[in-house]
Amino acid sequence: MWQNIIKTKIKNQAKFISKFDSKVADELINLSKKVLLADAKNCEATAAQKYFKALFGTNFSRESLCWQNSALNYVYAIIRSAVVRNIVSSGLLPIFGVGHDNIFNNFNLADDLMEPYRIYGDRLVLSLVDDDKDIFLSTKEKANLVGILKDSVKIAGKKFSLAMAITKSVQSYKNSLNNGVCELEFAEL
């Protein structure tokens, strides 16, 4: 399942970045094909490094104190909370993850299942970027970011709100566990 999640995440990154940098998009597609069980080659980290530099500039780092990171962290928290709500309401325990396995993290599974949805946060943050912004988010910017759960996405060609797509993904995870067959469904760009 982790292999499927990471492949989907990297493919979504490749599709989005192809609008800005076709070379990096091709590199990400190639990386997605190399993802092994448990992502043994750490393709996710390699893809993220290439992707974020292509998206926000070569000097960008996810550790930097800047508006983009503040906004990304905020929107990821919104997506994560929607995933957690769905996990708990479906009767699953969020502490038991597939790829994430940290005893101090009560939401390992949420961190797993949100991975393919980060791209929608990235897309929204990129649309709001302005070089003159402070590192702190305004109330209006936070309100714009919360609206992400209403964004329209597609799973298998059918439109859903992001919130509903997350519900479908969590249910597909639960069904995969019950059936013993990996049939994960995620929104794809």
Explain how this protein is built:
The protein has 189 residues and is mainly alpha-helical. Helix content is 57%, strand content 4%. The protein contains 8 helices and 2 strands. It has helices spanning 2-17, 22-33, 43-56, 67-89, 108-113, 118-128, 139-146, 162-179, and strands at 152-155, 158-161. Strands 1-2 form a two-stranded antiparallel ribbon. Helix 2 (22-33) packs antiparallel against helix 3. The protein starts with a helix and ends in a 10-residue tail after the last helix. The mean pLDDT is 94.
What is this entry, summarized?
This protein has 189 residues and is mainly alpha-helical. The protein contains 8 helices and 2 strands.
User: How much of the sequence is in beta strands?
Assistant: under 5%
Number of helical runs?
Answer: 8
Determine the mean pLDDT. Answer: 94
The N- to C-terminal Cα distance equals 20 Å
Shape label? globular
Major β-sheet annotation: 2 strands, antiparallel
**What strand order characterises the main sheet?**
1-2
β-strand number: 2
Q: Give the topology string: H per helix, E per strand.
A: HHHHHHHEEH
Spatial extent as radius of gyration: 16 Å
Give start-end ranges of low-pLDDT stretches.
none
Helix content: 55-70%
Helix/strand-derived class?
mainly alpha
